[in-house]
Amino acid sequence: MRASRESDAIIAVVDDDASVREGLQSLIRSAGWRVETFVSAQEFLGRLGAQAPSCLILDLQLPGLGGLDLQKRMAEVGLEIPIVFLTGHGNIPASVQAMKAGAVEFLTKPLDEQKLVDAIHEAIERDRRTRQQHAEIRELRERYESLTAREQQVMQEVVSGLLNKQIAAALGITEFTVKIHRGHVMRKMRAHSLPDLVRMAASLGIPSRK
User: Fold this and answer.
1) What is the pLDDT of residue 1?
2) DSSP letter at 106?
3) DSSP characters for 54-97?
4) Strands across the sheet with 83-87, in order?
5) CB neighbours (10 Å) of residue 163?
6) What confidence tens digit (pLDDT) does each residue in 31-82 have?
7) Residue 143 burial (C-beta neighbours within 10 Å; 0-12, 13-18, 19+)
8) In angstroms, how far apart are the furthest CA atoms of the chain?
9) How far apart are CA 168 and CA 117, in angstroms?
10) E strand or H helix at 125
11) Phi, psi dihedrals of residue 81, rounded to the nearest 5°
12) Dihedral, CA of residue 171, residue 177, residue 183 and residue 186, to nearest 10
């Protein structure tokens, strides 16, 4: 194992071949990860719980909902799980489509075990970064929602680049009041500078008046 945080990772395997599932399960467990196996894409979607897998090992050719179809379905519902595709034969168009849609790797069978382990490490790291980004956005959203309605108005004007006197004129308040609200915004949002506040607003999708 490379890092202790990876010990909590769950690796999902979706493959309709029992021998492949068993082989991958053994390999993944020997590398120190937890693993769950599924016969079909439908079974995988039906058993997703609160703790989503950190990586999905997905067979390209599946009965019913295929691998690329599952990738598309996951994107449509906002299910951000890094995918490592497996295929029994070289399929360049499919591999290009999978990689363009964000797959971590596209591997052919019989598998090079080290390449698969490396791909799983990369997927887990990608998943960690994604979860961290989502957590940061949630925290930013909570800070923003702690602002009063007036403070939110002032914040929007500030990140639009307006001066205090311009904000005062736009909102019909005094420049001193703007300064007070602006100070509250910086403190509650934990912004160290105007560029810092602008980046936070962009992350939250707060529109600029410009």
Assistant:
1) 35
2) E
3) SEEEEESS-SSS-HHHHHHHHHHTT----EEEEESS--HHHHHH
4) 34-38, 10-14, 55-59, 83-87, 105-108
5) 12
6) 999 999 999 999 999 887 667 789 999 999 999 999 999 999 999 988 899 9
7) middle
8) 74
9) 59
10) helix 113-145
11) -115, 120
12) -10
Element (H, E) at 4: none
Q: For 155-180, what is each residue's pLDDT tens digit?
A: 999 999 999 999 999 999 999 999 99
At 71-103, the pLDDT tens digits run 999 999 888 999 999 998 777 788 888 888 889
The helix or strand, by DSSP H or E, that contains position 191, with its residue range, turns out to be none
In the chain, the amino acid numbered 40 is: S
**Which 8-state DSSP code applies to residue 183?**
H
Residue 8: the pLDDT is 80
What is the per-residue burial (b if ≥16 Cβ within 10 Å, else e) of 5-43?
ebeebbbbbbbbbeebbebbeebbeebebebebbebbee
Long-range contacts of 139-145 (CB under 8 A, 24+ apart): 140/189, 140/200, 140/203, 140/204, 141/204, 143/188, 143/189, 143/190, 144/189, 144/200, 144/204, 144/206
pTM (2 decimals)? 0.77
Q: Is the N-terminal amide bond of 110 cis, ω within 30° of 0? A: yes
Per-residue pLDDT at 210: 56
Tokens (6 digits) for 90: 């070289």
Tokens of 159: 């990140």
Token readout for 199 is 């980046």
